[in-house]
Amino acid sequence: MVRIAVVDDKASNRSVLKDKLRRNPLFNIVLEATDGEDFLQQIKSFREEQLPHIVLMDLEMPHVDGVTAIGTASSLYPSVKFVVLTIFDDDDKIFRAIKAGACGYLLKEESGQVITGMLMNLWESGAGPISPSIAYKILQMVQHPLQIKEDKTNTPDIFLLSEREKEILQLLSEGLEYKEIAARIFISPNTVKKHSINIYNKLHVNSKAQALRIAYTKGLI
Question: Which terms in the Gene Ontology molecular function aspect does this entry carry (predicted)?
Fold first, then answer.
């Protein structure tokens, strides 16, 4: 059995993630924490043979954030693998998480099949799970360490979003896929996709991760 810990400050996010993980009978969720502080406190009670093999860690959390928790725990529990699972794809957070000791960086927009598949690869071969878009960013950071890419020509206007679009953003932040969102709010997956495209256009972004990052910083989710 692969022992897994889930750390996220939102109960809905934890619930969705646990549902995805439970599709693989080899995964056993042994710890669930609401933030980095809660995680560090709980893991103290684990004996060496009880420690989680893999910790899925969100980044933006109250009290103790994910990067701080990874930095502290990775030195105390070197056998544990820490994987970031977040909506954020900006270079600074990627760099800080890896520097702190994360062996993987996954975006919440990834499907359950992708997440569980990459975690099994980590367990079986030690291959760090990294979302393709994050892998590309890491490559860019290595090749151009001093280059800062920032586009200030388009300013996102969150006030242009409809209530339905805000609702879909919230559900995307919980890690739901288009089909799951469609079933939740009683519309077709194609309509969900159209709403998502409208969201991207209004926020001047090209991916779910970028849209969710803006929504988070603006307090929409």
Answer: DNA binding
